[in-house]
Write a structure and sequence with these properties.
mainly alpha; 67 residues
Amino acid sequence: MCPDCEDFARTVLLLGQLALYADMAGADLDFVDAVSPSLAVSLPEPPPGMFPDDQDHDGGPAYPGDV
């Protein structure tokens, strides 16, 4: 696996595990609130070939308040 692919996959896995942990009874939600933004920001660009070539990564749906 390419280094970028490995970093991307590991970060996505950690985000998923953190989400599962957050849903557990007794989870430390302060920990989740502290770690999740940093982990999300550290998510690298997806490796080439991860998404179809015709997919626009910057042109997502319009969100309320966006003009």
